[in-house]
């Protein structure tokens, strides 16, 4: 009888964990990738650059200037910020520049990505780029 109760207890715990994990995945993970969070949500496009060793300050300035010009050329960009890493943690893995774009919809981002001015920017960046990290998310 004790063994049967112990097994029943384990089954109940496993069922609860399974249920909780399933609900976490459905409610939390899906929500973070869902197309629209709410009417107030905006789509963030975060881009980090790591330049090749030996890239001159002048070439980095050309890349910065070319990126700064994109919001005036591509009206789907609803917001723009940028900066140079100054974290004291030492976890940047060589990434120095971060660009933070805001879009009102996935459709606006879909126009931006293949846009000729975005492609032209890529031609300026390409010779100097060692690595890039891009992540997008809907604000909550």
TrEMBL record:
Q: What protein am I looking at?
A: Dabb family protein
SMART domains the record matches: Dabb
InterPro entries in the record: Dabb, Dimeric_a/b-barrel, HS1/DABB1-like
Q: Which species?
A: Maribacter litopenaei
Pfam families per the UniProt record, alphabetical: Dabb
The Stress-response A/B barrel domain, residue ranges = 43-137
Q: Which domain of life is it from?
A: Bacteria
* Assembly and interaction partners: Homodimer.
Entries under SUPFAM superfamilies matching the protein:
Dimeric alpha+beta barrel
List the PANTHER family hit by this protein, alphabetically.
Answer: PTHR33178, STRESS-RESPONSE A_B BARREL DOMAIN-CONTAINING PROTEIN
């Amino acid at each position: 009888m004790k063994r049967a109760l112990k097994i029943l207890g384990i089954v109940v715990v496993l069922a609860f964990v399974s249920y909780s994990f399933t609900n976490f995945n459905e409610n939390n993970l899906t929500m973070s990738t869902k197309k629209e969070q709410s009417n107030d949500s905006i789509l963030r496009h975060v881009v980090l650059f790591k330049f090749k060793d030996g890239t001159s300050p002048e070439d980095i300035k050309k890349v910065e200037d070319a990126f700064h010009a994109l919001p005036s050329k591509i009206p789907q960009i609803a917001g723009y910020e940028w900066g140079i890493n100054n974290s004291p943690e030492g976890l940047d893995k060589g990434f120095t520049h971060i660009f933070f774009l805001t879009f009102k919809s996935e459709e606006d981002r879909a126009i931006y990505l293949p846009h000729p001015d975005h492609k032209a920017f890529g031609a300026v960046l390409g010779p100097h780029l060692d690595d890039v990290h891009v992540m997008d998310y809907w604000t909550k």
